[in-house]
Amino acid sequence: MELLELMKKRRSIRKYTQEEVPEEKLEMILQAGLLSASGRGIRPWEFIAVRNRETLRAMSGCRVGAAKMLEGADCAVVVIADAGKTDVWTEDCSIAMSNMHLMADSLGIGSCWIQGRLREAEKGTAEEYLRQLLHYPENFKLEAILSLGIPAEHPTPHTLAEVETAKIHRERY
């Protein structure tokens, strides 16, 4: 599939069947993250792949009203980074998230980006909540979570007619 067609088709999926994501597809999604571009090739990210249903249910409380899809997900990838390695860790992690998001869709796996950085949980921050649950070191910062599952539904693809081409400027603003 052509990349632009894949980008039009990719949608955030928040409802999943109970069918399991095949391990080989999860591995390909993680590999897409590892192959992501990174400033100066530092690759500050690390990924925590979670498949345990109880842990996923607990993770659904990491954001006030915004992570409930984790309860029905088959797995999730938590993207963290050693912020001391580079000042562009958020950008690097975002590229990895995007690559995994696109790879998931290309494999027929539904995914949804759950922002974690600078977000609140019921008590404290999403980062504190997940650090306590997943035990990652203090020097690692949370960027986001990618929920994954077999889509229960797939919204219609986007079209180029929907996008604002006026946002493209040539030569000057």
Order of helices and strands: HHEHEHEHE
Let me know the number of strands.
4
**Proper CATH architecture:** 3-Layer(aba) Sandwich
Number of H/I helices: 5
Biggest sheet strand line-up: 1-2-4-3
Mean pLDDT: 96
Proportion of residues in extended strands = 15-25%
How does the major sheet shape up?
4 strands, antiparallel
Radius of gyration: 17 Å
Which CATH class is shown? Alpha Beta
Give the CA-CA distance, first to last residue. 33 Å
Give the class from helix and strand content and strand pairing: alpha+beta
CATH superfamily caption: NADH Oxidase
Briefly note the CATH topology name. NADH Oxidase
Which regions contain 5 or more consecutive residues with pLDDT less than 50? none
Query: Residue share in helices?
Result: 25-40%
What count of domains describes the coordinates? 1
Gross morphology is: globular
What's the helix and strand layout?
Blueprint lengths: L2 H7 L13 H12 L10 E6 L2 H7 L15 E8 L6 H18 L3 E6 L10 H9 L5 E10 L24
Antiparallel strand pairs: 1-2, 2-4, 3-4
Structure keywords:
173 residues, alpha+beta, NADH Oxidase, four-stranded antiparallel beta sheet, 5 helices, 17% strand
